[in-house]
Amino acid sequence: MLEALRGAGVGVPLSVSASIGTEPDPAGRLERVRSWMVLPDRAVVHFAEPGAGELAEVLLARGVAVDAMVPLGGPAGPEPLARFLAWPVRDPGRVRLAAELATADPALVAGLRGLPPVAVLLYGRDAAAWPVLRLAARCGTGTRTGAGTCCTCRTGGRRGRTPNWWPRPGNWLRRGRRADPASSRTIRRDRA
Q1: pLDDT 10s digits, 105-129
Q2: Which end of the chain has fewer CB atoms surrounding its CB within 10 Å, N or C?
């Protein structure tokens, strides 16, 4: 897939998931990453999963930047953040903390100050996606979002679940724009 995207001239950094969904066994994930013939630009490592620190180290050693996904304020509890804080970030320029917020709570963002000197991205899923995106704009942080993340329209209506594969051009994405056309204008206006 990466070869096909690069061959098609896609010029943006390409990111992949390195989570339990790709390989349930932590040792198997390490072996899989070590065997990659084509490397992505970035990989998402879920610090709620066992072996996250070691997986991040293997990715960095292979030249792949890491997005450390840490859920905050939800059912995962404090363990993922503790696991991230225990991981010695040796190359902060190639690591980003992707804080997955259960709600758009500014107190959660304030709690991220003083963490290892890495870039912070805010991330919300489903009903939290749009509020977290607006919170990121107000706080001046980066954001991480995608078509599968925003299954709830900004206005509260529900879209159909996005399949796990990338949609065909003009399929779900086009319907999504028609379903909630004011979203991008609203985010820009909130920032001003």
Answers
A1: 888 888 787 777 888 889 888 788 8
A2: C
